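Lab notebook, bench 4. We co-purified these components, and the gel suggests they stay together. Before we commit to crystallization screens, I want a quick structural picture of the whole thing.
Request: model the full complex, all chains together.
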Amino acid sequence: MLATIGLQHYLILSALIFSLGVLCMATKRNAIGILIGVELVLNSANINLVGFSKYQTGKGDGQIFAVFVILLAAAEAALAIAIFMNFYNNVRTIDVDRGDELRG
Amino acid sequence: MNHQFEICLALGVVVPLISFAILVFFGANPPFGKPRAAYLAFAAIATSCVLSSYVLINWYGLSVAERTELTENAFRYHWADFGNISIDVGVKLDSLTVIMYFMVTFIASCIHAFSIGYMSGHSDEVGGKCKYHRFFAYFGLFSFSMLGLVISSSLLFLFIFWELVGLCSYLLIGFYFHEKYASDAGMKAFITNRVGDFGFIVGLALVVLYTGTFDLDAAAASFAEQYHTGTGIFAESISLFGWHVSGMTLATLMGIGLFCGAMGKSAQFPLHVWLPDAMAGPTPVSALIHAATMVAAGVYLVARVFRLLTPDAQMFIAVIGCITLTITALIAIVQTDIKKILAYSTLSQLGYMVFGMGVGAWTAALFHLMTHAFFKAMLFLGSGQVIEGCHHEKNIMKMGGLSRKMPWTGRTFLVGVLAIAGFGIPWLHIGDIKFGLGGFFSKDEILAVAYERAFNMGGDGHGESHESGGTHGENEDHAAPVHGDGHAMANVAEGVQLASADTNASALLAAQSAMASSESGDAHHAEHGRADKMKIAGTLPSLPKWMFWLPIFIAYVTPFYMMRCYWLTFRGTPRDHHVHDHAHEIPWMWVPLVILAVGTLVCSYMLFRPMIADAGGVATHAAGIVAIDGEAHSWEDTSGQVMLTVTHGSGMDNPHNALALIVGFSWLIGMGLAWLIYRNGPALAGRIKDSVPGLALVHHALEQKLYFDHVYNYALVGGTKAFGKLMGAADGVLDFVVDAVAYLFRGIGVFAGRQLDMGVEKRDIGLVDNIANFLAWITYMTGTGLRRPQNGRIRTYVLLTAGAAGIALLFVLFWPHSSDAAEVLSATAQP
Amino acid sequence: MIEDAAFYIFAGVSLFSAIAVVLSKNIVRAAVGLLGTLGGVACLYFLADANLLGVIQLIVYAGGTLILIVFGIMLTSQSPWVGFLPTKVQAIAASIVAVILTIGIVRLVTLVPWAQRNPDELSQSLTVKSIGDALLTTYLVPFEVASVLLLVVMIGAAYLARTEK
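Here is the predicted assembly.
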């Protein structure tokens, strides 16, 4: 029933996690929930990179790109959390729907 | 290969840029501040001047063969490739570059020195912004871009520097930006130049499209080859807006496009309107940018792209130049603002240069550019002295008798007036030295070529067939090996010029010796002169007669208005005692004037002309832009009979034999007439104006600058308004139609109601109202709908973005042709 | 065969954790779900011969970023169990979009005949050493740029999160 694992399997898994990440971003009102959705999306990209690296190039370049993606995700999370703290200090909530005014 | 010349020239370009960078950031405060900022700028341009002098002296010592070798091996750095187009950074190193570079640095140095004094009297503070250092910073930027323009070997970089000088011009015209007239003038200059630059860009695009290179030499060589073989642009046949455009027309359009840039920068008709307004800038700016260097850049551009011009394009250029020089000289007669007079005379002289380029007087036009730069810079600085000394009085009607108050200014101004008037005595020469000032040689040389062209007169050699082979062999050692394929004739032209320049180069008074030796029957030169005339006679289309007579006429007008300006300003009795009593000469500021006056006196004798002629040989060989009349596109017949070598051979000797009767004493007649009329002030002129019928009308028209500004205002500004009105009228028609439909339906309704015997309600909501309401509703709903997603909520944005991406994806994949997409994708899916 | 089974197991873990992330109303549970996804994906990396990447995923992502997120939750939630729920319309619209995206991408992935090589032929020694070499030779510039970026982020985050007086 299940074929041998190939590139397509990785890609489909990646597609599903990507969609779930987008869904997470689009439904969570908690800012950190949105951040979690972003992490999911980035992970799905990494799965793609690793899949191609394994089945197409056979070299390490895809993995190195994935390393950079992880790095950027970490940086982004750090900054995002800092911004959320600031936001929380100002508005006393973490609900992004309250952040629709361009006021400080 | 060591590139010492290129290094010197490039250094000279960079030094003013460094000065600019320092001044623009740190110029306002110590250690720079008020006087020192100017010293730094002067030191920078003086350094450039020293470097260029070094290059000039060394270059002058080289033989022609060595120069040619240097020109061909000039520094090129391959910078980038875009498709088939390669872009090189390089230095165009030939005699024209060297001499032009020297001219710019020398005059710029003088004007910098003058500005130190001129600007010291100006108030510093405008709204707390120190302007003093900005002035010199802009001067540095201008020097950088102008020098860069001169040494660019590639049209792309030429264009970049071209725009940079335009920017500097804008900044400096609007230097007193808090005054409305100054900022308006700056914008006018900028916008007018954009119009020209649009043509320039189109021309540039055509050049790159068909020759595949930006490099001046490579483009010209490719263009000539395309003409030889009838390929490339000449094989083109396209349809443009329903018009059939042949390759030759396209090539002409290309040339005209490039010339459009020159039209803007050199303020040629019909884009000449910005230059008089540009006088709103400080006077040193007018002297440097709007008289000596930047406006001449247009002529320089035409000279550089001359090899890309077809005869039709040349004729276009000549016509434009002819119109410009005529109308602007006439306008200059009635101006009363001293700077405006000089501005219009600059326009007129630029017209002469462009006209010269157009008739093929390449050498003469550039020679005129050089001499004009000297005396016009000096005249402007003199007017700056006058304006500054008279406390910003510009009206010459209020001056008079100033030469006693400012003797040096008066003397140098007179030298300038004589030079522009073409002071000189035909036939008279002491040994090899002819007697005359700049304009005498250069302007008459242009006229001589026009004369040849207009009357197709070739002297004793006229009509003989030209033995190309023989001449070629004779000059073989001088002929450059470049472009050797099928360019025999081109090499002849080059050889002729180079040979002469070579002979002349040994003598300091080269131009004069060339003339003298030619006149004294030196076989070598005489032969060339004859050969040159033959080339002209046989190849180029002849000039319409009016295009010869108009410049001749203006040669009489020029001395008239210059003398008027001089006499009303410096001589006679003071007409406004307030102005006169306070007039004074600013100490030491006349020193640059005297230096420039000496330059004016000697520049027509010194190495200028032979250097340009030398450049003409190299720069224009293989141009092959000569007569291509009718369908006979045979390059072989006409190729390389390039460049009206007559400018060199007979330009200096012939005109003062043949033309001397017509124009040789124009300076005397024009100036004498002006002296007769304005000897006792402007009163007599006013009486003449009133007594001769019709003259007042002409006077008024000229005073209004022949209504160009009015026409542009009316046609462009008013045109836009009229278009608006037209649209309004169209709206009215639509309203009428709508109303008519409404009445029609209402009538039908009433009719139907009567038929049905139901009566008609008073308040019937008609179809039109419904339509209007419906439209309003749609607009409202669209607006509301569009407003909704813009709610500042991040999740909505995520949703919209992702949704749009998903729908696009589905559209691509599930559309009936999705198999095509799959093919494309599978092609890219391979590693 | 075992590898195939392992793939399905880890993929399933990741997927279900991701679904849990989306569906959980409590943000802390979402974070725990994310941990599951990250762990499952890390295991997939090991399966795909990307050992170093798997380790980095565990250390940096699960060990660092996730802890950061949990700290963020702790610091910004007045009570630990506060969640904000989306409206029904929003949830439905988001679901539709997600379904569309899924269909689109899955269709795209299945449509293309991906060139594939046998991993056994390709199985070179993708060791930590080789990747480290590549990072410090071929990819040195991005590597250095990334280090600068991290420094900037560190300063920026410290600046943003400071207490304003």
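Chain C touches chain B at residues 86, 90, 93-94, 96-98, 100-101, 103-105, 107-108, 111-115, 117 (CB under 8 Å). Worth comparing against the SEC data before the next meeting. The radius of gyration of chain C is 20 Å.
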